[in-house]
Amino acid sequence: MRLLIADDHPLFRLGLRAALEGAGFEVVAEAKDGLQAAEMALKYAPDALLMDLKMPQMDGIAAARKLRQNGYTGIIALLTTFSEPALIAEAARAGADAYWSKEVPPEALAARLQRLKGGQEPRLTPPPMPSLTPREAEVLAQLATGLSTKEIARNLSLSPETVKDYLDRLYAKLEARNRVEALERARGLGLL
Which Pfam families match (predicted)? Predict the structure, then answer.
């Protein structure tokens, strides 16, 4: 299997390359950031791209999205130390096939890649898009402009308590703990 490795830490790339080549994989290229990874994946068309989640220029999720939009059909596996469900969901929506911890031993990583290529390893699947009622969408739009609960209530002719209820429902649907997370997730989902 032909691989491309993308990580902004040269020592990590070197170690991963040595381990995977030792397991019989061919590493056709290495990239130091997401932008370079996207360009090289389109140029070399590797069977799989192992890519860090957090990188300069373009993160792994944005690079995965760009690659899928440009027709890349190989495996995209994100390697990371971050395990937040929202990041995993965003990676799946961007077209990543796998989201694995950097703590996975190289031999296990090699086995997972083989299983993924052979269809024996489940691929990431995007969670369903949250369905907002028209009023929830209005509250979200108002929230995005930076308005307070009272200001949203005044603009929509609602009581502040009713707006708080809508905000609670929005937070639950967006799996957010606060306004900032709700807006971040809504933007990531294309709801804003």
Answer: GerE, Response_reg
